[in-house]
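Give me the fold.
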Amino acid sequence: MRVLIEKHYTHIVNDPDGPLFKDAFLVEHKYDYIKKEGKYKNATRYEEQNERKCTICSIVQGDKNVPSYEIYRNENFIVFLNLFPYTSGHLLISPLQHFEEYETMPDGLIAEFGKEVKRAINLVKNATRTNSVNVGWNQGPNAGGSIKHFHAHVVPRFPREMNFIEIIAHSRPMIVSLEKMQEIYKKALEDIK
């Protein structure tokens, strides 16, 4: 990665008046989500979230004001696409019941959660044809958590996924829409049952 950055900076120095990018893209909804503006103006800030004001609880309850790309649910868990994915196919796994932290879930639910994570990993690998995933969670605002309802991430990773946009613009373009990814996962889900 260092070589790419050095090559890019060399290019900028050689042509300081040239454009950084020929084309630009806008991910305006992410700004709206962070600032709680636009269609997210009624979203609850982290410190104000609770069981009655929770994005994931709203998704679980089918609130039409909260976008959702559900892949599946069972008696205790829901699996859905992240609205702001790190890569195409980024899944979230959450208990249907509101728990703010992993360690507050009952032991039986924690054991079942492990099985759901395994199922989601198999789904991601099957649907995206990757052999690499990141799995984890961000618990609390200082750890990067933005929703006070425990959930884990399963992020597919691909060879050579970094390109100049990630390195220079610190942005990640998605190559597959959320709608298309939902369709791909629902079809692949039948293959792993």
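Strands lie at 70-73, 77-81, 91-95, 132-136, 152-157.
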